[in-house]
Amino acid sequence: MRFINLSEGITNEEYIIQSINVDKATKSRLQVLGILKETKIIILNKRINGLIIKVRGTRLGLDKEISKLIKIREVRENERVKPCFYRKS
């Protein structure tokens, strides 16, 4: 299975967050926003300085530098991601 940076993802595709490699304060803030390991996201729009994703029904904007530190993978066929509002990572 291949992992890529969130910034390298394709618009309108679904992905699963595999890892978040940011400092503790940023990781905590992302967790509050629902960006956690094993969470399904959709990349809605890509800009020069960042991107817009949909996570848990909410649209969020992420800086390009942060999106480079989040690893994602494609959703496998027939894969179901359990809904969860908090997961320790």
Describe the structure.
By secondary structure, the chain is mainly beta. It has one domain (4-74): SH3 type barrels. The protein is 15% helix and 38% strand. The chain has helices at 24-32, 64-67, and strands at 4-5, 14-20, 40-47, 50-55, 58-63, 70-74. Strands 1-6-2-3-4-5 form a six-stranded antiparallel beta sheet. The longest helix is centred in the first third of the chain and has 9 residues, at 24-32. The relative contact order is 0.31. The model is unreliable at 84-89 (pLDDT under 50).
Keywords:
single chain; 89 residues; mainly beta; SH3 type barrels; 2 helices; 6 strands; disordered C terminus
Give a summary of the structure in a few sentences.
It contains two helices and six strands. It is mainly beta and 89 residues long.
Give the topology, please.
Layout lengths: L3 E2 L8 E7 L3 H9 L7 E8 L2 E6 L2 E6 H4 L2 E5 L15
Antiparallel strand pairs: 1-6, 2-3, 2-6, 3-4, 4-5
Q: Give the name of the CATH superfamily.
A: Ferrous iron transport protein A (FeoA)
CATH architecture: Roll
How many angstroms separate the termini?
20 Å
Number of helices: 2
What profile does the largest beta sheet have?
6 strands, antiparallel
Mean pLDDT: 88
Hey, roughly how much beta strand do the residues contain? 35-45%
Amount of helix: 10-25%
Quickly count the domains.
1
Structural class: mainly beta
What's the gyration radius in Å?
12 Å
How are helices and strands ordered from N to C? EEHEEEHE
CATH topology value: SH3 type barrels
